[in-house]
Amino acid sequence: MCPVLPDFEPPKMDYICVGPRDGWKLEQVTMNLHTGTHMDAPAHLGEYSKTLDQFPVDAFQGRMVFIPLQDRGKGYPIGRSDLEPYAEQLNSDAVALLYTGWGEKRGWTKEWIYESPYLSNEGARYLAACGVKAVGIDHFSIGGTGEENEETHRIVLGADMWVAEGLQLDDPALREGDWHVMAMPLKIRDSSGAPARIVAIQWEARP
């Protein structure tokens, strides 16, 4: 299920070929590239030109900085004070993942679409100043759907970060140990973003 803003057509899947009838099974998916778990490139905003396919592959990985914020409540603006406790980890190798709890609320509801916690302009400026590689959140928009959304995107994308949205971050294991994040977007030429598989791997020390 990939709920989107009511302004957009919801994703749909059609069957072009059906096995028992046609001998082949073939599906067709229609959706915008910023649906479900996906990544934003700077070109998502018109004033920037860098598309997702222009990032080197090694830019799509880094050390996870898991930031639990699930107790902050509806519409909470994630600011500098929420991020500063992780200052020592927020550097050029960091992928900051903001866990708001909204991933578990995913649905075609007013709460899910319009009332999520979000990265505020202040919080975005702080992450940009830290020079993090990327930032992700468990909602379809890093800046929510309110008045700060566009500027939050402008700040982080203008800092040459990629953004991951629509994540699922409720696994308790993510809160402990060292994790490495790898993002694997569909490679689409000149794209402002793309659906992506984003995974975390925990390294185990050799005996």
From TrEMBL:
One of its GO terms (molecular function) is arylformamidase activity. It holds the Pfam family Cyclase. GO terms for biological process: L-tryptophan catabolic process to kynurenine. InterPro entries: KFase/CYL, KFase_sf. This is Cyclase family protein. The lineage of its organism: Bacteria, Bacillati, Bacillota, Bacilli, Bacillales.
